[in-house]
Amino acid sequence: MNVERLHSLLLNAIGEIEDCNTLELIVGLRDRTQQLASNPQHPDIQRDFSDMRSRLMEALDIAASNSLSPGTVRDLENLNIMKYLGNSLADRIDTILTQNEITLAVASDQITQITTDLQDLYNYLKTVVVAFETLNIDKDEPAPGEVEASVMLPRSSINNSLRSLGAEFRELEQIFADVTELATGSRPSTSVRSIASSDFSVYLELAPEAAAFLAVAVERVIALYRNLLEIRRIRSEASAAGLSDDQLRGIDKHIAERMDQGVDETVDELFVEMEIAVSDDSRRNELKVSLRRSLSGVAARIDRGYQFDVRVGEILEDVDKDGSEVGERSSLASSWRLIENSREGLTFLRLEGDPILQLPSAEPSEIARDEEQSR
Q1: Phi, psi for residue 309 in degrees, rounded to 5
Q2: Which is the most buried residue in 128, 138, 245, 366, by most CB within 10 A?
Q3: Quick one: average pLDDT of 166-189?
Q4: Which of 53-62, 149-158, 194-203, 361-370 reaches the highest mean pLDDT?
Q5: In Å, how far are 5, 16, 106, 201, 283 from 137, measured between CA atoms?
Q6: With 70 as the cut, is the pLDDT of residue 348 above it?
Q7: Domain that holds residue 170
């Protein structure tokens, strides 16, 4: 993660804590939990406790963090911030209170600890943000209507090799070029917004139509891959138990066939459901072949811990007097909605065991056009 993105994440976390009035509400819940632990049969204390609990849960239920993109959630989890926001915090508090209905003193102690931790976190965040602003460190947020696609590449997948990293970037460029041409009819070079280096992450500018196509396609591939997670676990256990490669080959073949079939069906569905901006039948067929390879590559990279994400800046929708969207914005709004509807399906997968899918050949696709030809 780069420092500009970190700045934005911290500002948004501070904003949510303030907008939801989380600190004041959780302090109120802490105090009433302590009172209830001391006087569990007092009806007024019971009522005050229930009211404060409801107010806090209602505030957290509408928190902005509940609709963040999977990549942003991952970043906040890595920073140890996500558990103090929105539904994540609500679930923790609800679990504590539910599990300790009889032992309220235990619940009181745990709520007190969360309250202290949240107060400390808020103060730390404010201090860091002031330092960033003093040092003139900018913020990294998509502009209104702008779309950002990102890919996180685990260092283990490229062995910290510059050559491997370069090869991966070329493969990713092929994937983004395919969806861009299918969605927009052109194949420009993909613009890089920023690169981060803890795990290598690349943040890219895409046309909204291309980003929508990418989001829907990756969501479908992740759904396919979820169906293989149990097989992945079983294969890992079988390998650990001493089964040879020959004995595992049948499982590997089954996995490959299921994914190949799923990718073929997904490509066919996308060509029916999405607006394809390429009218030439020959080129459409070429792109269909290339998209199969690209989505197989997406699946194999997800299998290796890669994470794909798409996020949108503030969504702007102009409407006329009868409520219908106006002009070009109508098409953009449709893309934005597709992205928003797909984001939940891009959720980070926690994987166990070794990869089970083979990456497609790293040879450049025969249909890839060089940049001059695509202009």
Answers
A1: -150, 155
A2: 128
A3: 92
A4: 53-62
A5: 10, 21, 43, 20, 45
A6: no
A7: 147-374
Give helix 104-134 / helix 86-99 axis angle, nearest 10°.
Answer: 160
Residue 194 sits at φ, ψ, to 5 deg, of: -165, 165
- List strands edge to edge, sheet with 307-312: 191-197, 200-205, 147-153, 307-312
Q: 299 and 155 in one domain?
A: yes
pLDDT tens digits, residue range 8-59?
899 999 999 999 999 999 999 999 999 988 888 888 988 999 999 999 999 9
Please check whether residue 140 lies inside any domain of the structure. Answer: no
Q: Quick one: CA torsion of 355, 71, 80, 52, rounded to 10 degrees? A: -130
- CA angle, corner 356, sides to 355 and 358, nearest 5? 95
Helices 245-273 and 281-303: crossing angle, nearest 10°?
A: 140
- Cβ neighbors of 87 (< 8 A, separation 6 or more) are 60, 61, 63, 65, 66
Measured distance CA(282)–CA(279) in Å, rounded: 9
For the entire predicted model, the pTM comes to 0.74
Lowest mean pLDDT among 14-18, 31-35, 228-232, 300-304: 228-232
CA-atom Rg of the chain in angstroms = 24
The values of phi and psi at residue 181, to 5°, are: -65, -40
Q: What is the DSSP letter of 357?
A: S
Cα(27)–Cα(111) distance, integer angstroms? 9
CB-based contacts of 260, cutoff 8 Å, min separation 6: 296
For residues 158 and 283, membership in a common domain is answered with yes
pLDDT tens digits for range 276-288: 988 899 999 999 9
> Total domain count for the chain?
2
Query: Are 348 and 307 within 8 A, CB to CB?
Result: yes
Q: Are residues 60 and 181 in the same domain?
A: no
Q: Which is nearest to 16 in space by CA: 143, 99, 108, 118? A: 118
Find the length of the chain.
375
Q: Mean of the per-residue pLDDT values for the chain?
A: 85
